[in-house]
Amino acid sequence: MEEERTLSLVDVLEEDEELEEEASAVLAGSDSDHCSYPQGYVKRQALYACSSCTPKGGEAAGVCLACSYKCHEGHDLYELYTKRSFRCDCGNRKFMELQCKLFPDKEQLNSLNSYSQNFFGLYCTCSRPYPDPDDQVEDEMIQCVVCEDWLHGRHLGCVVPDCVELQEMICESCMNKHSFLWSYAAHLSVLVPGAEVKEVKEETEADESKTKHPNKEEKADNVEPSCKRSREEAEPSCRLKVLQAIGQKRVQSGAVFWPSGWRSKLCPCNTCKDLLSAASLSFLLDESDTVLAYETKGKSSEQRGHDPLMSALDNLNHVQQLEIIHGYNDMKTELKDFLQSFASEGKVVTPDDIRQFFEQQQSRKRGRDDAGRFYPT
Whose CA, among 75, 191, 245, 249, lies 20 to 30 Å from 355? Predict the structure, then answer.
């Protein structure tokens, strides 16, 4: 019979290290002590939705990291990861009787906030919770950079490429809603199986006009206002029009993955800026808007912050540091043996068991201290 695997404290710490790093990357970029409301519509921050205060069927609302700790402790919260351009709702009209403990002086509504099914704990095109108790398929979820919903990899309508953590994804629904993005996708996106690119010779509007009205071409050119011509001459060439003129297209179905740095290749001309603004996509021209940029900033902030435990250890002499290390190693060994006894018997470790373990540790420590004392005769 195969011996049941047990975990030591070190094993647990090592296995949780990656999760802790991800969590610190998300949380370190947000303030855990002060409500973000006074900052207005924050460029990007960690957000939560409280199902205890705003249940399904009510109005969607989101709260910042600090309010999730101070105002909604013990509540049922949905972790929304990060959202852009959002202002904390905690304590406003949507929360009925709850008042924000950190910044109670809020307007009744944040009219510029955007909400989705995520605020009620539902995700993807399948509108299911995550984790889903009825779904036994192991499948990572990927966030669309436009609508910011999370979609199952198997519901993207395409093959998920390698190194996906370094790429941004725009779901098929958002691509079709903003169809001009397909022109960029044919040249800038990550090519995955099923999304082949092909050359297509297209008639331009000028060609169509020439075909339909061959005798009116000169007149049309002559009546063009001079102010319009001068404005177009002064404006830099439009990258989007250049890409469209090439006539290269890709299959317009499924989600689209974009490599690092793709935003810098979008056209910044005034016409395209207006196009993006009208579609509420101006953020695509901002490379610091990406989740990767936010996480990188959070990690660097976490590294700059000084750990109070390490500060305390720095103030101890070498002998004291060694005593702490030996004490930690002893506790680690004893805790491993303690947990292993439960694992071998198939028992569940309860809070009372853990409490009893540390009480025994304290009792042993007192016994050692007493044995080491010398009393005068």
Answer: 75
Q: DSSP for 101-142? A: SS-----S--TT----GGGGT-BTTTTB-SS-TT------EE
What does the block give as tokens for 311? 């500060």
Closest CA to 48 of 75, 21, 18, 20: 75
Q: Which position has the token pair 């990406």?
A: 290
**pLDDT, tens digit, 9 for 90 and up, residues 140-191:** 999 999 999 999 999 999 999 988 888 999 999 999 999 999 999 999 999 8
pLDDT of residue 311: 52
Q: Which residues pair with 143 in a beta bridge?
A: 150
CB 58 within 8 A of CB 94: yes
Q: Is the dihedral of CA 16, 17, 23, 28 positive or negative?
A: positive
For residues 345 and 351, give the distance between their C-alpha atoms in angstroms, rounded to a whole number.
17
Single-letter amino acid code for the residue at 297: K
**Per-residue pLDDT tens over the stretch 259-316:** 999 999 999 999 999 999 999 999 999 999 999 889 888 877 665 554 455 555 555 6
Look-up of token digits 């309010």: 67
Query: Tokens 């307007």 label which residue?
Result: 107
More confident residue, 235 or 106: 106
Q: Do residues 102 and 67 make contact, with C-beta atoms less than 8 angstroms apart?
A: yes
- Own/partner contacts of 357-366, CB < 8 Å, gap of 24 or more, are 361/331, 361/334
Q: Cα(59)–Cα(89) distance, rounded to whole angstroms?
A: 11
Residue 303: how many CB atoms within 10 A of its CB?
A: 10
Neighbours of 183 (CB within 10 A): 21
Do strands 42-50 and 63-64 pair parallel, antiparallel, or not at all (unpaired)?
A: antiparallel
Distance from chain centroid for Cα 105? 29
Cβ-count burial of 41 within 10 angstroms (0-12 exposed, 13-18 middle, 19+ buried)? middle
Q: How many residues are there in the chain?
A: 377
Residue 68 and residue 77: Cα distance in Å, rounded?
8
Nearest partner of 183 among 120, 244, 245, judged by Cα: 244
Beta carbons of 197 and 248 less than 8 angstroms apart? yes
